[in-house]
Amino acid sequence: MSDKIVKLMNKITFGQREKNKEGHGYRYEKSIALGPWASGTLLRDPIHLVFALSRYKFVARMLTGKKKVLEIGCGDAFGSPVVAQFVGELTAIDIDPKIIASNRARLKRIKNISFRELDIRSEVPGEKFDAVFSIDVIEHIEPELNNLYMQQTVKSLVPDGITLIGTPNKTSEKYASAPSKAYHINLHSHESLKQLTEKYFAQVFMFTMNDEVVQTGFAPMGHFLFALGIGVKKK
Fold it and tell me: How many CA atoms lie within 13 A of 175 on its CB side?
């Protein structure tokens, strides 16, 4: 091999190493830890991580190009970077101060995500957003707070804003694990989630998911539900 080719290869290798150090190459020289929820799932039920990311991908595609987006109940933000990749700014809120601090430390290199400790049941962010979404949140909120949850969502939106609410389908409860059954205190059916969202949005479109597949078919057979609300209803 000629000296010229060797020098060129060394230059390319050095350049790639520099990109890797900054996180712009094919790999990152440092490891980014998973949060506690994602870590537990990786050990207990790793395939579920794929399903979770698929839900975030769906949201990302629906909200592509939106300038300001709010995520309610981000948890350990396993899927939040997927949405952040396609929007201008993502504000992710959660009620757990420890998880918010962890997210800030672990994901500080993703510059268009900001994390805030905030309980949407008692307050809303000070600014308005083009879109608000939540995944695996409403099923953990007391049923009597359904309307409050939607009202707080609406308060956070611009008039022509969009919301996406993702939650397990009530019809799939019989297949759920014991922990899921214990913590999912507010499951919705396709019809009940649609009716709730229609109270607050001018147009509502419903989708279901099985694993990674989004569909609009026979709703009771869908494991996961998405309600897409468009345009805040005028009082």
Answer: 10
